[in-house]
Structure formats: C-alpha cells, structure tokens
Design goal:
The chain is of the alpha/beta class and about 250 residues long. The protein has a domain of about 170 residues: 3-Layer(aba) Sandwich (Rossmann fold), CATH 3.40.50.150. About 35% of the residues lie in helices and about 20% in strands. It has 10 helices and 9 strands. Helix 7 packs antiparallel against helix 10. The longest helix has 14 residues. The protein is globular and about 55 Å long. It binds S-adenosylmethionine. The site of S-adenosylmethionine has 20 residues, from helix 4.
C-alpha cells in the first residue's frame, strides 16, 4: 500500500475523514482472512491491541478467536461501532493509551499508511512485550479479474493488487528493537452484493472527499460493472509481521 508523505496537505484531511461515513464503513468494508491473522500472532498470544480499529472489522475476527482485545480508535463516530467485547479506547498510534510491554501483539488493518511511522513505531515497540509481534494488513483489490480492473479504474483505486510493492519496500525499516518485517499475501473472496459494494465505495476517503456530483457519477458507474446478485469479491490481503526484540 502506498505511503502518502505526512507533509502532503491532503493527508491530515484524508486520515480524519472516515467518521462521516462510519455506517457505510461498518457495512461495506471487507473482513481480514483468519490465516493472515494467525500468521502474524505470536504463539500463545492472549492480549492484542487493534490499533486504528475503525468500526471493528479486524476487532471482530480477533474476538472470534478468543483473544482479549484492546481497540484504539481516535474518531468517536467509528469507535461507536466497535464490538462491546473489546476494551474500547480513544487514542492515536503516536500516543498510545497503554502501559509499557502490556500486549502480546499490535495489529493494524488498512491504517498504518496514516501514521507518523517513526513516532508510531516507537509507541508500538513500547507497548509490546519481548517477542511480541506487530501485524499490518491491507486488503487489495485483485485486479487480475477483469471486472475488478474496471472497478479499480472507476475508483482510481490505490489498493490494486497489481500495485503491490516488492518486499524491499517494507512499511517500516531500521527501528531499534524491532526485526525487519516479513511479508505474505493471502487470497480471499468475501461475499458481496451491489449495495454492500456501494457502501464499501462510500467508506473510502477518496470518495468521502469528492464533490457530490462526481460521487454520484462514480457510484452509477460502479453499479454498472458489478455482477448481479451475490458475488465473491476477489481480494489479496497483504500482511506484514515484525518481532519485538531485546
Ligand atoms: C481505513 S480505516 C481502517 C479501520 C479498521 N482498522 C479496519 O480495518 O476496518 C482507517 C482508520 O485509521 C484511523 N486513524 C487514522 N490516523 C490514525 C492515527 N494516527 N492513529 C490511530 N488511528 C488512526 C482512522 O480514524 C480510521 O478509523
């Protein structure tokens, strides 16, 4: 996933834009594959931080596998959707409201690119216990499928699987006390229908910040390319795993 530079004037606006579409977000965003979550967690993990938890798409999965989940999310409208089974906290990646060495893993779904990486990584390292892990996930549209390629074109999507960087372009590097992250890709295909896909499109920061007239035209074009009825949405989940070292 492309990392926008923190000095990009649109960056601050985009990363705080999601609250107005929290309902669409909760309805439309895809889940994360269980195998990817299992791959990033250390053996015997019990307490896990879901950082930038949004409406809880990743939180739900962590709860399903029986983990004790702390979900940190700065936007109140998003936090309101988080599942009650998690401990829900206001906070940011750059100032985590957690004690030192208090979690076995920190996971981040579709949000690490919004962080001030050196500051956030220092915080992530602080709250991780030794041999704990950080897991970063991005769901990418599998645009090797022709209708997904057309959809990605309409969305001017950044999250195209064909844009995946090579392993040298890791999301972080050179952080003392953290191993270099390793990457794996996981294919999955959650079931959608047109209304859920339209909700997904409405929840994207690019769509939220568009003028209403352009948004309307784009949504109509999306409706035209989507298959009828229920269909699998082909995705590739890019996952990165790093280890907290002494
Ligand atoms: C695209 S959403 C992802 C939400 C959720 N993790 C998911 O997978 O559905 C991005 C989230 O990152 C949050 N966010 C943006 N910048 C952040 C920061 N610096 N610290 C913590 N959260 C941040 C936003 O409020 C938003 O809820």
């Amino acid at each position: 996933m492309t990392q926008p530079p923190p000095d990009d004037p649109g960056w601050g606006v985009r990363r705080t834009s999601f609250g107005s579409q929290a309902d669409a977000y909760a309805r439309g965003r895809p889940p994360y594959p269980l195998e990817a979550i299992e791959w990033v967690l250390p053996a015997g993990a019990r307490r896990v931080l879901d950082l930038a938890a949004g409406t809880g798409r990743l939180t739900e999965r962590l709860l399903e596998v029986g983990l004790d989940v702390v979900a940190v999310e700065p936007l109140a409208e998003m936090r309101a959707h988080l599942p009650a089974g998690a401990q829900r906290l206001d906070g940011t990646a750059e100032a985590l409201p957690l004690d030192d060495r208090s979690v076995d893993a920190v996971v981040v779904g579709q949000a690490f690119h919004w962080f001030d990486v050196p500051v956030a990584m220092a915080e992530i390292r602080r709250v991780l216990r030794l041999a704990g892990t950080v897991g970063l996930f991005w769901n990418m549209l599998d645009d090797s499928e022709p209708w997904i390629d057309r959809l990605a074109m309409i969305l001017v999507a950044e999250e195209r699987a064909s844009f995946l960087r090579n392993e040298q372009d890791a999301p972080y590097a050179g952080i003392d006390g953290m191993s270099a992250p390793e990457r794996r890709l996981f294919r999955h295909a959650p079931i959608y229908d047109v209304e859920r896909l339209v909700a997904f499109v409405h929840s994207r920061s690019q769509t939220i910040l568009m003028p209403e007239s352009e948004r309307h035209v784009m949504i109509e074009a999306v409706r035209d390319v989507v298959p009828a009825g229920e269909f699998p949405l082909p995705l590739i989940c890019e996952a990165w795993r790093g280890l907290r070292q002494a």
